[in-house]
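Hi R.,

Here's the chain you asked about this morning:
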Amino acid sequence: MKPITRYCISHAEPMLPPYWFDDAIALGEYEEESPLHISRLHNFWHKNRSLSFGAAGSYALPRALEQLPPEYQLVGICSYRKAILRRPLGRPSESYPTMREMERHEAEPLDASEMSPTGEHEFLLAQPRHFPTGLFHQYALVHELVDLLDYTSLAINNGILDKAAAADFVREQVIIPGGCELGIYPRQWLAGTLSALSTLGKTFLETYGSRIRGYNIYQIRAVGFLSERLGSFLLMRELKRRYPQGAPPEVFGHMTCIIEDGRTYAASTTNT
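And the predicted structure, written out as tokens:
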């Protein structure tokens, strides 16, 4: 396996066991003196964390990768309470399909092999979710559709998607949860993709931030919801390029949320 380094993007002391990651991309008041605090990596996302939450750390990650020795060819990303594991450990989440939940004490005995790609593969990703009616209808059902339309238009203007790819994007029936912000990825591809998403997200907030600020505590995370979906689309496009006959099952692990004292996962109760 190629050398790998792992980052945890977090606003507080992570719930993950500390040996699950090598460095933290720190947000908010967490480790403010760290050289990897978001204020030192990307001031725009530091100032706009109230709109981007944990996604801000993903957008700043390419600048952390610039400081990483070149021998590290794979990059892992986890968050305050989530990671991708090889095996389906713990128990299925009742609130989030394809995700599993595991008590912190159950996670502590696990070693790094549970969070590493299989063999020579360069990816370890969440199990895909399927939406038969497509992304357009799924997004309209749970979020503000105008955001998807505006974001996609900006993606065309920024050269991330052409018109044909944009049409494929909004029709896509498969989403990999976490997109390119949770899992293991090849460094060069990840840096380029997250840089593009960061630039797009910045343009989106500079253009439509006043609208987003009027949303409730859940929908205000729009830029993160959008980049997860576009990141997933770009990720699947890369998988299709690498695996024309279909991605092998070994590249898919299991999104796992660490919990304590039986408290189950609830979206939007933390910053990440």
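The beta strands are 4-10, 23-26, 74-79, 82-85, 91-92, 100-103, 129-130, 174-175, 183-186, 254-259.

Let me know if you need anything else.
M.
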